UniProtKB/TrEMBL annotation:
GO terms for cellular component: chloroplast; mitochondrion; small ribosomal subunit. Keywords: Chloroplast, Plastid, Ribonucleoprotein, Ribosomal protein. Belongs to the bacterial ribosomal protein bS16 family. One of its GO terms (molecular function) is structural constituent of ribosome. It comes from the Eukaryota. InterPro entries: Ribosomal_bS16 (IPR000307), Ribosomal_bS16_CS (IPR020592), Ribosomal_bS16_dom_sf (IPR023803). It comes from Ruta graveolens (Common rue). Transmembrane segments: none annotated. It holds the Pfam family Ribosomal_S16. Gene3D superfamilies: 3.30.1320.10. This is Small ribosomal subunit protein bS16c. It is found in: Plastid, Chloroplast.
Length: 88
């Protein structure tokens, strides 16, 4: 199963995270399928590739709790609902 989750980057005590699509069995810093965003909790900055996230969610990827919250704040799920109703 593919998951959307955080991958830790940065240096000690200054963590930044990449939001990646990755196989659910892989470890945290394992090989990812695709980078779909960036999250910096210290400066509270977020950058998301919304079409890529929508693609993986449409294919059945499961976001982790933190990625779900970040995506929800950015309005990704409203776009997902709009796309689903548009094609139904």
């Amino acid at each position: 199963m593919v998951k959307l989750r955080l991958k830790r980057c940065g240096r000690k005590q200054r963590a930044v995270y990449r939001i990646v699509a990755i196989d659910g069995r892989s470890r945290r810093e394992g090989r990812d399928l695709r980078k779909v965003g960036f999250y910096d909790p210290i400066n509270n900055q977020t950058q998301l590739n919304v079409p890529a996230i929508l693609y993986f969610l449409d294919k059945g990827a499961q976001p982790t709790g933190t990625v779900y919250d970040i995506s929800k704040k950015a309005g990704v799920f409203t776009e997902l609902i709009l796309n689903q109703t548009k094609f139904d």
